[in-house]
Amino acid sequence: MSASTVEPGTRLAQRFRLEDRVSESEGATLWKAIDEILARPVAVHTFDPDFPRVTEVVTAARAASRLTDPRLTQVFDAAEDDGLAYVVSEWVTGESLSDLLAGGPLEPERAAVLVAEAAEALAHAHEHNLHHLCLRPGKLVWTTGNTVKVLGVAVDAALEGLTTDDPALDDAEGLGRLLYAGLTGHWPGDEEEGGLPAAPMSDGHFCTPRQVTAGVPGYLDTITCRAVLPESRKSHSALSTPGQVAEALADVARPLTIQYTPPPSPPPAPAAVSRSEGLDTQQRTYVSQPLPPKQPSTLNRVLMTFVVLLVIAAVGVGAWTLGRKLGNPAPPEAAQSQPPPSATAEPQIVKPSNATGFDPLGDDGAEHPELADDAVDGKPDTFWHTTNYNNATLGNLKPGVGLLLDMGKPTKIADVIATLSSASGASVELKVGDSPDLSSLKTVAKQKDASGKVTLTPDEAATGQYVLIWFTRLPADAGKFRGTIYDVVVYSPGTA
């Protein structure tokens, strides 16, 4: 069979039936086909007789078929014989990053998780000496099955004839561009890409994500600059491999919260049964009928009569007691001896002048200090967190880590309300003192198995310039252990 005879209805390898021509580019054609043996859709590439890189594409596809990460497109078959070459791979349905950005930038954490998943998958490919080299918004897909897919590892580069001296750096920069796009809705390139406008520039350089879109967390801005904006890295080192990008994004909270929205379906008919995909559940609709009014039974009438008699007796006793008090008023001296009620002032919120991640026993004395302000900005979707550890006791490396607040001056502490992650198992302490040294901070409150909103109230009066929320035990988080603080509010006793 020659390539010139390839048309809808053609069967390859006696099982893959070509159905719809999806796209054509420089002698390569992408088809939607049906695997007739497994009764599922597949993607098939075929090639014109004069396509110059057939051998390279088939070789790359066979190598990619050995990859096991489910976030990478699976290759099912690749052949070059009888004058016809083809590559059969997974048919992926969902929304590409371009589709997701049609309405504007994503929420920062959502963009970060998408790219983090892609970075981990590409790190797996690089371990097998396979690369992508042409990461674009259309190559990153949020599937209808609520998973991330990276399309075209190895195969796309062969199709386009792309080579590079440093594939790890090229893919790290590609991931940085995808993160930039997710955070800003712009593409950091000279031209538009995937329907996204080119990123704005300042003094001949691309603006950083925070300069383009308000609300981008500082740490994501820094990661993007380290991956793809060398002129904005400042003192930070470059991220030069997908593995380094994955490591930088490893602390992003998961699971992914982007939801695929299917087209609306007509409402079910009454009493119909609907079955959710993958779940053995049923939903039925019932029409309720009005019930006839119940007639009171003899027992009910007796109980009602008894209740009425009790009410009448209670009213009589109350009236008699009131009459006695009115007839025998208390002497003026007794009335005057009652002390006036004291005025109790409400505790006042005191904002810290500074916050930092605190790891006095670590190598640099800090624990994600770049995220500390996110725990005191009053926004529920930003947070500070510890490093990931291998067990709940901080890898048995240290007694604790925490978030240190500098109140600016000695402050009386009434309560400290900290919003932690919903994962249970954290043990936290509240420490207060006049010096940021751990030995100078006194423990004034403790709580075990803490999660969600936690109120730490000092056991006795506490005053100090520094307030420390100190984790001594961490909850589980995505296979690791880390502490997370979404918000901290410090209350000081009010004055009457």
UniProtKB/TrEMBL annotation:
Keywords: Kinase, Receptor, Transferase
Superkingdom assignment: Bacteria
Presence of keyword Ubl conjugation: no
Compositional bias annotation for Polar residues: 279-288
Disordered, as annotated region: 257-295, 330-379
Biased segments, Low complexity type: 333-348
Basic and acidic residues: bias regions: 365-379
SUPFAM superfamilies: Galactose-binding domain-like, Protein kinase-like (PK-like)
Listed PROSITE patterns: PROTEIN_KINASE_DOM (PS50011)
CDD domains: PK_MviN-like (cd13973)
Domain Protein kinase: 16-298
InterPro entries for the chain: Galactose-bd-like_sf (IPR008979), Kinase-like_dom_sf (IPR011009), Prot_kinase_dom (IPR000719)
GO molecular function, one term: kinase activity
Biased composition (Pro residues): 261-270
Keyword Kinase in record: yes
Identification of the protein by name: Protein kinase family protein
